[in-house]
Design goal:
The protein is mainly alpha-helical and about 230 residues long. The radius of gyration is 21 Å and the shape is elongated. About 35% of the residues are buried. The mean pLDDT is about 95. It contains 7 helices and 3 strands. The longest helix has about 40 residues. Helix 2 runs parallel beside helix 4, helix 4 crosses helix 6 and helix 4 crosses helix 7.
Length: about 230
Amino acid sequence: MIWIIYFILLILLPLWAQFKVKSTYNKYSKVAVSTGITGAEAARRILDDNGLQHVKVVESRGFLSDHYNPITKTVNLSPNNFHGHSIAGAAVAAHEVGHAIQDKVGYAFLRFRHALVPIANFSSNMSWIFIMIGIFASATNMLLLGIILMAAGVLFQVITLPVEFNASNRAMDQIVASGIIRNNEERQARKVLNAAAMTYVAAAAVAVLELLRLVLMYTGMAQSDD
């Protein structure tokens, strides 16, 4: 029964998070922001207010492809958010600018996450090779190595949480202080940001659950070897 619950959570958590973010975004992308400002204009205003005139706001391709690139110093907004005049667009744009502000002030968790990127990429690609060899060959040392590599990827997922929540908090402060949204629109903008954050929470939860399952498997194999 425990394993059934585990696999249900493993499947349902990401699906629920994706449904939540898409449904919330679709709802508030149809609600016009009272100031009539586009996502691109909102991002530009917040950047300028924070002395980030050198950071460019550019249009990216794809649905909800919004992100901040610390290498090129660009806030990349998907077409709907770049051109649209919605509460969802303003909230998402402000969130990505929140990352640019983190970059400017040297936010510790953001720096740590950036440092983990090459390690996490390598470990994510290699961990399952060692894990599968360890499982099928009953080689506890190989399984342990795979678990250690996977742990680096899980750490990256966990470190992402404070980075994303902090960016959302900065976003809310900025869009209110800059007059991009009115007081009665704060609740709607926060719903968009909270829904987006749930995707990161679900991803981290699934990663931690999978790591714990493998640790329990390794413990059982090690005890049987003894």
